[in-house]
Each structure stands twice: as structure tokens, then as C-alpha cells.
Fold this protein.
Amino acid sequence: MFNQQLALAITRRHFFRECGVGLGKIALASLLTDAFAARASTSSVPIRNPLGPQTPHFTPKAKRVIHLFMAGAPSQLDLFDYKPKLAELEGKPLPPSVIGGQRYAFIRPDAAVLGPRYKFSRHGQAGAELSEMLPYLGQVVDDICLVRSVRTDQFNHAPAQLFLNTGFSQPGRPSLGSWVLYGLGSESSDLPAFIVMSTGAGISGGAANWSSGFLPTLYTGVRFRNQGDPILNVTSPKSVDARLQRDTLDLISGLNRQRLATEGDPEIATRIASYEMAYRLQTSAPELMDLKSESKTTLEMYGVDPEKASFARACLLARRMIERGVRFVNIYHEGWDAHSDVAGNLKTNCGATDRASAALIRDLKQRGLLEETLVIWGGEFGRTPMVETNAALGRKQGRDHHPQAFTMWMAGGGIKSGVSLGETDELGFHVAQDPVHIHDLQATILHLLGLDHERLTYTYQGRQFRLTDVHGQLVNQILA
């Protein structure tokens, strides 16, 4: 269809303008004059909003997503999956039959067992076991669903992060947030529909984690800072007043609309929408980032210092974003890669994230937003039951990467609350019951949003692609 439209658009005038003989350049002044004169008429030409709300495949349970991505992979064995057997075997190697030829990046297969570093206790009506490092999560455990049987195909950070976010281990595929925008569109006209924030030192998978891949770039996540202006240069220079800026944008829009009518390229429509969104952001972004309207009680609940960037501040901003119609929010908190001193790593990162994560659940619930907001918490894989100790690298009492079994939790948006799904063996090495593959998790997230993961496809280079590739089953046990 697109190629036919393009062929029809290639007229003789189009040929002379594009053929390089200089006729287009000679007429430049005239074209600009015409653009000014016709600005009113071209600006009134309707363009279908490519981010307008779309009809889902079926009635959704969730309308928006907040994904708290713990980049680097938290140790499930010290936070969520208590294994007394590890304490009993500490200092001894695991039986070879358990490891089954599994290779690791930084430890030998016969590395000694490392027991849980912290005490566990039961919380909530269901008596869910949690580490003492998660006291705030324990207060809202009846509002979440623990999934202790997640597994992935990837064992290095960048491929595993990409796999969880895009369904593929290499850059180039659309992210989960991009697929959601493609399927559902946006409810906000003043803020991007897909926003990304980061509260750590760096993300192994980089911007490919929130890229639109081969989808139109309109569906790419927009990176926000969580302090000051969310986007650099969103504030106009003092020499540019509102009238001058509006006139400039109208002129650019007129030229872009003329080009769109000629070429039919959807990326031009993306450009037009991006200019207009940037203009509206100059008003909406400062209001979003200003926390003065938040009560002292709310700030204390999250543990937010309004003047400092933090994971807590990002969580509070995420709540403010979804109140304003943002469809998908990613918060990356990096630093969980505990190859050494896993106990100290957890103390630092849980101290930075536990209070705010629990506050987000409580805040959404008391505002009536949790029912239609899906919250996801977890990393890209788990950590080994065996210890990592390497004098040459200065490492001791750490844990290596472990893709076979790890824990994530979810809340709101059609998820059963106060339940746990899945079990690992007594050593926490393999999934023993109710395995949940990453593609199963992705299929379930889309389902909660009213999207069938097998029907949400995009044709690229002659093939239909989807987030879950050719895999994925709904995890019906956690659906409310």
C-alpha cells in the first residue's frame, strides 16, 4: 500500500525538484514565500494522530504500566526465596548432578555454597517469607503477587535486559513499552506516552531497552531526568518569546505537512508530532516536576527530598505521570550486580528502593489508581547459590549470574494480590513448580492491557514480528 501511494506521488514536478539539476534550489526563495503565505491553510490540513487512543483486542484490566527495573539482578536467595538448606551446606560444593554442566562467567562449577545473608520472616495474611532487608514491602505484601519461578535464556546483563524488555537478546527489536503504545496509543496530549528514568550508574543494555526498534520512532521511550528540567533545553532562551516560537513552529509544521503530502513517509508525521509535543512540554514538564503540591505526608511516605534526584523521587514522579495520562513508565535502578559483598550490595540498594516501592503501591491504592495500574518489580536474572570469591579481582562473598530461577513481583492491574506462585528446589537452583519464562511474563502483561500477544504484530522485511516471537503462554494462575 505504501509503495503504491509513493509511486502515485512521484509526479514530473516531484522529479525535477529531486533530480539534482538545481531547479529545486533555484525555487527555494519562492517555496519559502509560498510556505509563509499558505501557512494558515497547510496548518489546518488534518493529520491522523498516530498516537491517538486505539481499541484493544478485549476489555483490559490495566490501562497503564509502571516497570521498576532492578538492573544488575537482585539476589532472590537473600530477598525472596529462603533456602535453609543453603545455610546447612555453606562452604561445601553443590552436587555435580544439580549443576548439570552449567558454566559461569566468574566462578567454577564446584564453588562452595553461600547461605542466605539475612534473616527471613513471614508477613501478611498469607505469611509470605521476605528478607529483613525488605521491611516496607512486608507492610504491603498482601497487595502484591510474588513469582518465585521466573527463568530466562540469557546469562549476561545486556542480552538479558534486552530479552526482558524486547523479547530478543540483540538490539533492534521494539521494547515492551513501544509495543504497548503501538497497540493502545496515548491518553496524554501534553506528556510523552512512554517515559524512561534512571537512578543509577548505567544500564548495560542501553537505550535499546526502550527503543521502538523497527516500529516508527514515535513509539520510542523518552528519557527524562528526575531532577530539574526533565529534558535538556526544554526552557526557551530569554530572547525567544512565545509568539516567535509559535510562528517558527507553524512555519516548520507547514513545510513538514507539504513534505508529508508528497512523500507519505510516517516518519514525517512523527516529526510533526514531536515538535508539537516539545512545545507543550515547555508548560507541562515544569508542572510535572514541581513537587510543591505534594503533601508532607506523601513526601515522607516515599522518603523523598524534593531537591535531590533519587529512586524515591522517580517513583513519586511515576505516580504523577500516570495521573496525567502517561501510558508506560520505566524506572531503571542500576547497581544490583553483586559479584562481591552481596550482603553490602543488598543493604545499599534495598535502602534506596524498598521504602519507595512499597509507598508507590500504597499511594496508588489510596488514590484509586492501583486497580488500573500494573506495577512490575524485578531484574534481568537471579544470583547463584554458590559463592563468588576471586582474589585477583578483589571479590569475595558475592554471587554470580543465574538465569535458571529468580523472583519478580507484580501488583495491581488485574493481578491477584497476596499470593505467591512457583517454587524452586531446596537449593534455589532450578524451578521445581510453575515455571514462568520471560515470554510468558510478556504475554501476560500484554493480556492485562487487553492485547493478545499473538495478534499484536508488525510486518517488517516481509515477516510478521511480535514481542513474544513464537513463544509465550498466559500465566493464568496470577490473573485476578
Q: What stands out?
A: The chain has one domain: 64-235+288-478.
